[in-house]
Amino acid sequence: MFKRILIAYDGSAPAEKAFDYALDLAVKYRAALDVLAIVRPPDFAEDVETEALLEKVQEHFQDQFAPLRERAARSGIAPGFNIVVGHPAEQIVREAEQKSVDLIVVGHRGKGLFERWLLGSASRTVIAYAHCAVMVIR
Question: What are the UspA domain coordinates in residue numbering (predicted)?
Answer without folding.
Answer: 1-138
